């Protein structure tokens, strides 16, 4: 049987190597780190959100359309149920949370148990695992890859599977350099781009670090007319340098694209209260309760820690009573309560994303086998592909499914 070389011992590479070995191939897996699955071990805050619950069509619907079309064959061949069955047979029991995210049963180091399970599977299938092995070059040209360079050593094989991941969290081994090598070999690629990352703000609010805004939506607008470019419902959290949290991660890629095109702004808007209705409510409150402090009223809508600085910035003293609130002040209060301006975003950091957007162009890859179309013996899988799903287990599932397809030789 052919000798298969897999580069990268993360989610996609481990599955690809195991699958190829179970089909009878001699498989060598090369991993740069001293141990396997380093990014997997920190995924889901160390708990590892392995996949998402639901039928394949629902999982696919979470991805952008072109990515969903590409993923369909591999996801059907190795879906979330297949991943969980495999893990269960290795002793990793899992459960789905109400929001559909699937995790191993709560145990210390549960993400590590997922890595151990895949490592055991690969070993038992006969995969030769070499850690501390960073590939430094690809040798050959289309249509055949001849080998790989590992320091001074040249590694030969018949089929090569690249599963070297994205370019975020480079400390986990994913420096993204393989994408540059592929581009030099004529493979169509999209450059790495930040995604699922926190957003720094041009005017950060370190004093608000740890404060959360809940139940609303983060809105992105740009251009002279403040055109709305995107919105995502969910909580946000102030950090030292900007904002993070579910809605922030999901809107980070669009924010960076908008920012690179010109000035952009972020707002956190209430979805429950419309400005006109709240303005009317504030006017009745002024009549019914004239001595109520404007600050007390605003605290019904915003966390306490934000209220005083916001009132000060708006030129409204914290001792101001509703009866003394002028009409422009009333509009300011209603504006803050319904759509809190967060200001301009700064460069979204590629390194801090849960994934990196960009990667090998999907049109250059056969979605059933992950083979590069112009090559006879080169396959790519996992985050190295131009795939970036939302938070929720989708990215690991994409890595498992495309890894399985790549290993099906
Ligand atoms: C903090 C964080 C939390 C996350 N949480 C989740 C989650 O809960 N659920 C989810 O679905 N997704 C999550 N993700 C995303 C998910 O971890 C990735 O999408 C997934 O690991 C990609 O799998 P992969 O096999 O393609 O790449 P990786 O798992 O990154 O594996 C690639 C491997 O290739 C190795 N490598 C790279 N270059 C070379 C080279 N030149 N030579 C040899 N080896 C090399 C790297 O060392 C690495 O081990 C998270 C990501 C981060 C950063």
TrEMBL record:
Lineage start: Bacteria, Pseudomonadati, Acidobacteriota, Holophagae, Holophagales
Pfam families per the UniProt record, alphabetical: HI0933_like (PF03486), HI0933_like_1st (PF22780)
Entry cofactors: FAD
Organism: Candidatus Geothrix skivensis
InterPro entries: BaiN-like, BaiN-like_dom_sf, FAD/NAD-bd_sf, RsdA/BaiN/AoA(So)-like_dom, RsdA/BaiN/AoA(So)_Rossmann
Domain RsdA/BaiN/AoA(So)-like insert, first and last residues per copy: 194-334
Name of protein: Aminoacetone oxidase family FAD-binding enzyme
Origin superkingdom: Bacteria
Entry keyword annotation includes Flavoprotein: yes
Membrane-spanning segments: none
Domain RsdA/BaiN/AoA(So)-like Rossmann fold-like: 3-408
UniProt keywords, alphabetically: FAD, Flavoprotein
